[in-house]
Inverse folding.
């Protein structure tokens, strides 16, 4: 083990933009209006009377301000094994293509004859996803993974309504370990949510499933492997139980990275699935989107998908809007098209063998990481009875160390950044593992990167015993010190805009 | 992939003590592995080959840079300052997923500055980070109103964007579900394109959760008495939800000043390229009242003190009420969204300042009016609701004896993308929705008029 070095993050003491600039400064000018343009006066009932309280800066000042902010964002400068999000290499070739006017400066209502290039790419990528999943049709309208889950609930509604069974098919079954978006979107769509608890083997028992599924079940939403890195070996039986009850079953492929090229959702019997192109397929996540949830389903469900679908004809590519059974729009237009193009670029640059190899690497790297983490005292692997190698991530627990030192997973996350390591992902709600953390090595990082990451964990574990206050008061070398979170739930102190801050905290503003 | 280097996998396998990669997939039963081999196109391993493939395809597109474009209707062609592209392209912003409040301090501050500047335009104190689209923002806002009032009917304008309306219906329906919301259309005044106030008042009642209207509206029309609409809604105990184009707010009154309770709008005009519709995002804003804040579904970024005296940082306020914290019991649902566009918007608004917004608003107004006057003089062409719109307006071609499709087909070889064909949706004859923005010079508009004159002959 090496001794990781602390870094000093950039620290600019950067004011909020409202505190910068001065009256009359300009960052953007417009052409002098041509003489023939008429002056327009709006009625007083709708004309703006006040001057918006916006900062006034030059272009350079704006650029410098935001460069300071970008430098105070750790981003991809260190090592991020941020589990459940699958950190990928985002190729600059794809970025270059996406910034071209042939993609950035096109309008979705242009005549399809003028959009043949982008339609071809979307069509070709649909075929790639069909091969990876076995599904019959994909659509990219969903704005992210949760939106793809929502798409499934909307498709399920339309499907059951078309069969006259929506009044009785009112329930959605998932597990307590499923991503929160699954139950949340189902609830928003009007379904009653049934959360199955996990058994000691890490997944809900077949008995629990059978007890939950009935002729009231509209759909089952499940991920596999889950965020613990555990694969449910009974998933085919789940599909059988679902089908026997007449329910739809949806594969949340959030953790596709470890099984891509290995599994086919269709061969396993699923009716529909989704891929998050912003993680698995190498399109940047951009700090929370624009993302894409690619939604795919079988021919039987395809009539209910949101329109339009892209159709290849003898004369080129067309948009099919004439879909009378469609569930309606999930979101305007056809999705985050540049992100789809970037995902297409990633898939083409990898090829079938590269995709298969990447899943190999992600699983090998995870198990290498598990092997080393197991040697650090105070850490516990979730479900310790499951000795089989985990998939591309594993959920761990700091509970033994926390009990010994009082240093918890949040403290670790804060301290990691002092070593140039992105804080780890802890767990989605609910925390069924105490003091959780969920690293995912993926295929991006080198063994040296992974070793550094683990060395930092070992270092902080050592600090927790020798100098717990050092960890609890972290970070020490970041742009700002630890943020006091007690204002965030207090209506008298939270301030989501500078206006609100000035009103509530005028004395200190 | 760094670990695809020779020996790296074997090195790790040796340390784990595994004999093969396949051993590590032991959790997966043998009969689960796919039987059908992958059928993907050949790998493009080199950057050069990939670039060639992408550009060969993309160059089949015709762009709004090389053509004169008048399409809008949810995605609009505006000038994107070059600095915006530089900042949103920064890897720290573009690729990082999530750190801590401290390690991602810069990104969080940029997010706060998006909300702060938009709040200054709206004259409102709470602005959530953008959701997937304007239509999604309206859908979430309507459901906020349902939770706030306990009522399940929303009034929306007859002349709504069919695209947004379809999204709204997805968020509200179908009627078989217990939590469904009935979407009721309010008639338009055919003389102005604005809401018919009599129809609005007739439909307002104790079952109405919210009145939704846009300013400017889908067809570009401006509601000149928005305070009257809000007052009527309030009198009936309903929430007022307004949709606004943020680029109009240098010249149009701030919705916070005329009684809006919840405000939504698109973020694409704030420095985001059209991206074939992939540049959309939608904001939700309100007053800083706890009863509203407690109904938000997504990410609200608040300024906060740190352990260092006099220093500030940023974090997520009221976070446990969203679905990440509360799963199906959360306020609606959220997920990865369009937060990079919040950074684009923060930069864009920082460049504009109050004078920039006033100038762009005036520029769009006067260019639109100029275009209307030119087009209205063309034989066979008639502009509906002249001189009462912002950015977009409806052009009727009935007297030209040609369909909009025919006219647009004739314009296209001339390098012009004519307005969106709305003949099927408006019931006002052969009509197109034209969008004129700051990118159109007076000469461009004369060029359009000249070509329309020729193709309408």
């Amino acid at each position: 083990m090496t001794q990781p070095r602390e870094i000093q993050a950039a620290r600019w003491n950067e004011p909020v933009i409202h505190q910068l600039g001065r009256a009359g400064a300009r960052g953007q000018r417009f052409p002098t209006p041509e003489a023939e343009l008429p002056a327009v006066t709006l009625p007083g009932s709708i004309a703006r009377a006040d001057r918006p309280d916006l900062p006034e800066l030059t272009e350079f000042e704006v650029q410098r301000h935001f460069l300071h902010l970008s430098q105070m964002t750790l981003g991809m400068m260190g090592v991020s094994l941020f589990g459940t999000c699958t950190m990928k290499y985002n190729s600059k070739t794809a970025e270059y293509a996406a910034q071209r006017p042939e993609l950035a400066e096109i309008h979705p209502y242009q005549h399809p004859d003028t959009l043949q290039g982008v339609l071809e790419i979307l069509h070709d990528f649909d075929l790639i996803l069909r091969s990876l999943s076995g599904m019959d049709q994909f659509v990219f309208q969903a704005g992210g993974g949760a939106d793809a889950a929502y798409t499934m609930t909307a498709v399920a509604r339309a499907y059951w309504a078309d069969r006259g069974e929506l009044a009785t098919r009112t329930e959605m079954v998932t597990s307590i370990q499923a991503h929160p978006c699954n139950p949340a979107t189902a609830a928003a769509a009007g379904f009653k949510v049934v959360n199955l608890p996990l058994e000691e083997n890490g997944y809900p028992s077949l008995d629990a499933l059978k007890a939950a599924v009935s002729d009231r079940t509209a759909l089952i939403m499940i991920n596999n492997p889950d965020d613990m890195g555990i694969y449910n070996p009974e998933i085919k039986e789940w599909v059988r139980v679902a089908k026997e009850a007449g329910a739809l079953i949806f594969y949340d492929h959030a953790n596709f990275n470890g099984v891509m090229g290995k599994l086919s959702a269709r061969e396993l019997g699923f009716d529909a699935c989704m891929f998050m192109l912003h993680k698995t397929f190498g399109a940047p996540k951009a700090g929370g989107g624009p993302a894409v949830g690619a939604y795919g389903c079988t021919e039987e469900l395809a009539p209910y998908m949101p329109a339009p679908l892209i159709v290849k004809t003898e004369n080129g590519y067309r948009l099919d809007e004439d879909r009378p059974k469609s569930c309606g729009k999930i979101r305007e237009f056809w999705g985050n098209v540049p992100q789809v193009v970037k995902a297409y670029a990633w898939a083409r640059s990898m090829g079938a063998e590269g995709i298969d190899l990447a899943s190999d690497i992600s699983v090998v790297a995870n198990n290498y990481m598990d092997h080393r983490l197991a040697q650090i005292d105070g850490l516990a692997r979730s479900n310790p009875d499951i000795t089989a190698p985990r998939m591309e991530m594993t959920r761990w627990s700091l509970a033994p160390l926390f009990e010994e030192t009082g240093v918890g997973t949040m403290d670790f996350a804060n301290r990691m950044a002092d070593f140039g390591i992105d804080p780890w992902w802890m767990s989605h709600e609910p925390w069924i593992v105490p003091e959780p953390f969920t690293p995912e090595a993926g295929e991006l990082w080198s063994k040296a990167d992974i070793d550094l990451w683990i060395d930092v964990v070992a270092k902080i574990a050592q600090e927790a015993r020798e100098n717990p206050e050092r960890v609890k008061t972290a970070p020490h070398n970041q742009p700002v010190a630890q943020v006091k979170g007690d204002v965030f739930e207090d209506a008298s102190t939270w301030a989501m805009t500078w206006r609100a801050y000035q009103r509530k905290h005028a004395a200190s503003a | 992939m760094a670990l695809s280097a020779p020996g790296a996998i074997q090195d790790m396998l040796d340390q784990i003590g595994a004999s093969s990669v396949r051993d590590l997939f032991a959790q997966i039963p043998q009969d689960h592995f796919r039987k059908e081999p992958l059928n993907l196109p050949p790998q493009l391993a080199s950057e050069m080959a990939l670039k060639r493939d992408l550009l060969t395809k993309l160059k089949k597109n015709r762009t709004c840079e090389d053509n004169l474009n008048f399409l809008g209707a949810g995605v609009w062609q505006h000038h994107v300052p070059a600095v915006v592209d530089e900042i949103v392209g920064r890897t720290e912003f573009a690729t990082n997923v999530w750190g801590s409040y401290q390690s991602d301090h810069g990104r969080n501050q940029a997010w706060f500055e998006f909300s702060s500047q938009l709040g200054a335009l709206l004259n409102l104190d709470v602005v959530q980070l953008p959701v997937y689209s304007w239509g999604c923002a309206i859908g979430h806002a309507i459901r906020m109103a349902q939770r706030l009032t306990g009522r399940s009917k929303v009034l929306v304008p007859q002349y709504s964007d069919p695209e947004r309306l379809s999204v709204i219906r997805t968020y509200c329906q179908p009627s078989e579900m217990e939590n469904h919301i009935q979407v009721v259309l309010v008639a338009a005044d055919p003389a102005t394109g604005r809401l018919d106030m009599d129809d609005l008042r007739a439909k307002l009642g104790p079952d109405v959760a919210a009145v939704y209207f846009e300013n400017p509206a889908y067809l570009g029309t401006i509601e000149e008495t928005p305070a009257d609409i809000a007052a009527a809604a309030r009198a009936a105990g309903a929430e007022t939800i307004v949709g606004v184009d943020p680029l109009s707010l240098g010249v149009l009154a701030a919705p916070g000043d005329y009684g809006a309770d919840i405000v939504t709008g698109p973020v694409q005009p704030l420095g985001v390229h059209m991206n074939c519709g992939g540049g959309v995002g939608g904001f939700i804003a309100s007053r800083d009242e706890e009863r509203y804040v407690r109904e938000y579904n997504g990410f609200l970024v608040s300024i906060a003190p740190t352990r260092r005296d006099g220093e500030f940082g940023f974090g997520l306020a009221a976070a446990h009420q969203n679905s990440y914290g509360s799963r199906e019991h959360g306020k609606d649902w959220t997920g990865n969204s369009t937060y990079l566009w919040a950074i684009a918007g923060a930069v864009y608004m920082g460049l504009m300042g109050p004078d920039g917004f006033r100038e762009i608003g005036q520029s769009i107004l006067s260019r639109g009016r100029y275009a209307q006057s030119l087009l209205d003089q063309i034989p066979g062409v008639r502009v509906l609701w002249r001189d009462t719109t912002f950015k977009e307006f409806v052009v009727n071609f009935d007297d030209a004896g040609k369909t909009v499709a025919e006219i647009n087909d004739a314009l296209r070889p001339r390098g012009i993308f004519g307005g969106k064909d709305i003949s099927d949706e408006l019931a006002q004859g052969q009509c197109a929705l034209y969008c004129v923005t700051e990118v159109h010079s007076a000469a461009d508009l004369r060029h359009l008029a000249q070509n329309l004159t020729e193709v309408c002959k």
Remarks:
- The first strand of chain A starts at residue 137 and ends at 142.
- Chain A touches chain B through 217 residues (CB under 8 Å).
- Chain A has two domains: 93-349, 353-480.
- Residues 240 and 269 of chain A are 8 Å apart (CA to CA).
